[in-house]
Amino acid sequence: MPEFAVWAPLPKLVRVEVDGALHDMTVDDDGWWRADVDSASDARYGFVLDDDPAVLPDPRSPRQPDGVHERSQLWDASAAQWSDRQWAGRSIEGAVIYELHTGTFTPAGTFEAAIEKLDYLVDLGVDFVQLMPVNAFNGDHGWGYDGVLWYAVHEPYGGPDGLVRLIDAAHNRGLGVLIDAVFNHLGPSGNYLPKYGPYLSSVSNPWGEGINLAGPDADEVRRYIIDCALRWMRDFHADGLRLDAVHALVDNTAIHILEEMAAETDALSAVLGRPLSLIAESDLNDPRLITPRDRGGYGLTAQWDDDIHHAIHTAVSGERQGYYADFGSMAALATTLQNGYFHAGTYSSFRHRRHGRPLDKTLIPATRLTAYTCTHDQVGNRATGDRPSQNLDYGQLAIKAALALGSPYTAMLFMGEEWAASSPFQFFSSHTEPELAKATAEGRKAEFADHGWDADDIPDPQDPQTFLRSKLKWDEVDEGRHAELLAFYRGLIALRRDEPDMADPWLAHLVVDYDEDERWIVLRRGRIAIACNLSEQPVSVPVTGEVVLAWGDPDVGAHGTALPGHSVVVTRAA
């Protein structure tokens, strides 16, 4: 007989409705209400609080078949059909990760359709698929960062059974799966948690009210978050999580929630017998996140590194607006590649203060930082969602790829970048409430109008065409220059896998040479040299040896290499 339970310290009376019938519940001193109710394994249910007749979804709902405002449905994780017993897992350190949005990765936009593309990803050479949030959110399509029922799987993607099939299929092809989890805020539609208990804090962040991590009754809120994190890895066999904007988790307790989550993740890893990884998104440049716990850190596996993105993107593209202002020089690019952070206790003109802290390169390997040239953020949060491929030539795209994939950092691609996808990735939503839909569209236009954009140029997030425009065009993969760039990406990924010197994770062993005026840079990793010419003019670089991979037509001689404009050469010394 299933037990229905909910933490609800605020209401004086809680009842559970199961398949249309109301049942009384008993409460303990900790605010947990419980009732044993004979019901079907797929029963619909919800909770009724005090004298309000509304039936609310379960905060820990395992399934929301009719959307986030409706009743929950039982789903038994132990009954899921798995065939991945041979999957031993692996850490993300040093791997190549492929970030994708389920709804726009394929024309159908479902987990089932994504399975059909897994063989392509295997052929590309990536090690992990990283899914943008798949938790339940309002509407049919959106980015997923406005989730409100964190335990449930977004039904239009295929629900929990569809996610099981996707992860099972990935594991059977040797691919790990990471899930993007958002624990720093809740979406504006379907958030009923405040009716149950003090889930929210008085501290706000750019996306709304913050989460109660340190106030009264915070212990149960923290448990709610950590149990959700563990659920993705235990019940759905995920190999780890990407943790969204952890700098917005305001926690002044002695044991930060990230440290607590990392410790419990390691404990679950020991039980399951396979590695589990936690990757933080943070703009703090704080090495504490990835410092081992026995050395005073939180012990997370890795951290997104926006400084690497900014240094590469600005040097190649020439963009210098906003938070790009301190980047763009070859010196900034070399400093960042050699040190992990550019801002490491140094002045940030964008923030108007000192920012960051130096990374201890003798303690923390480069593989604990993630390098990328594109992410959903760095594309989708541009005014029109334009990709680098819409602004740069193919040589410049090859340079960016070589610098990120040729570095010692854990690498990440954003879906479609490997073939210079022509489709944008725009900000889209499908709020069902007219007032919220209007506010979302007007807010987006106002945000970019403040930065000088014509409001008419900003796509309407609520327009279905904004979503449809963002879908990948898979027929491009085998076409002309798209196919050439894809082959170059495959070569770079194979280089990481096959060349022993490329596996060295220590920044102390990375040697970087550059010329500010001629705008070339060379990364030396043992016998491997990766030379890039960022200028339009041909240059001579001090690189010799056997050509392993190239973009352009380099002329390698006994005393150096002539590199055409916007080109790359990878050589191996004798």
Automatic annotation (TrEMBL):
<dbReference type="InterPro" id="IPR006047">
    <property type="entry name" value="GH13_cat_dom"/>
</dbReference>
<keyword id="KW-0326">Glycosidase</keyword>
<comment type="pathway">
    <text>Glycan biosynthesis; trehalose biosynthesis.</text>
</comment>
<dbReference type="InterPro" id="IPR022567">
    <property type="entry name" value="DUF3459"/>
</dbReference>
<keyword id="KW-0119">Carbohydrate metabolism</keyword>
<dbReference type="InterPro" id="IPR012768">
    <property type="entry name" value="Trehalose_TreZ"/>
</dbReference>
<dbReference type="Pfam" id="PF11941">
    <property type="entry name" value="DUF3459"/>
</dbReference>
<feature type="domain" description="Glycosyl hydrolase family 13 catalytic">
    <location>
        <begin position="99"/>
        <end position="496"/>
    </location>
</feature>
<comment type="similarity">
    <text>Belongs to the glycosyl hydrolase 13 family.</text>
</comment>
<dbReference type="InterPro" id="IPR014756">
    <property type="entry name" value="Ig_E-set"/>
</dbReference>
<protein>
    <recommendedName>
        <fullName>Malto-oligosyltrehalose trehalohydrolase</fullName>
        <ecNumber>3.2.1.141</ecNumber>
    </recommendedName>
</protein>
<keyword id="KW-0963">Cytoplasm</keyword>
<dbReference type="Pfam" id="PF00128">
    <property type="entry name" value="Alpha-amylase"/>
</dbReference>
<dbReference type="InterPro" id="IPR013783">
    <property type="entry name" value="Ig-like_fold"/>
</dbReference>
<dbReference type="InterPro" id="IPR044901">
    <property type="entry name" value="Trehalose_TreZ_E-set_sf"/>
</dbReference>
<dbReference type="InterPro" id="IPR017853">
    <property type="entry name" value="GH"/>
</dbReference>
<keyword id="KW-0378">Hydrolase</keyword>
